[in-house]
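Issue 218. Parser rejects a valid record. Input:
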Amino acid sequence: MLKDIARVNALLGGRAAAGFGFDRLLEGATPDARLTLLDVGAGSGDLARYLAGRAAKRGVALAPLIIERHPVAARLCRRTGLTTAVGDGGQLPLADHSVDVVLASQLLHHLERGSAVSLLAELDRVARLGVIVADLRRHPMAALGIWLASYPLRLHPITRRDGVTSVRRGFTRHELAQLLREAGVTGAVFRRPGYRLVAVWRAAEVGRADR
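Output the parser choked on:
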């Protein structure tokens, strides 16, 4: 099923959404920059690998780190060469401002509201440059779309059902923006193709350094 999710990311907007946020954070980065990426709840690690390749095209060396709470997914990430630790996104085993870019893709909608707010604050805590939160935009057409697309994509029936459930647990743009405010972060929330939402913000440490 992790392979199904990677396929959906590639074909139905997940990669593009993460790439959109990544490009916004990398604006102004020098071609020889060396950056770290933390992907929280990475699944198979497909987005981390994709962003590393995207960065390389700009001459930026990106070193991914995976935090994944599910041991099976963590093992899969390790097999593909990604530095991986088993851990909880709500209590990251990292120092403040210790990684450059933090990504959480399609993770937030799995959490209850209080846990989602805590996660957002924790992502902000460890980020040195900025944070990307990509998730699903709740809409009837999105649920119908993933259901119909699952057949030509030959997705597992469990993936099909989970996809529809995930869309129904997704957010409106206003709802995601409200979660950011509750977490104490100031970010922009964008609608992206494929019924995706992307929240992007610069880390607090960057803001203090710029003032």
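Fixed in the parser; the record now loads. The first helix runs from residue 2 to 11.
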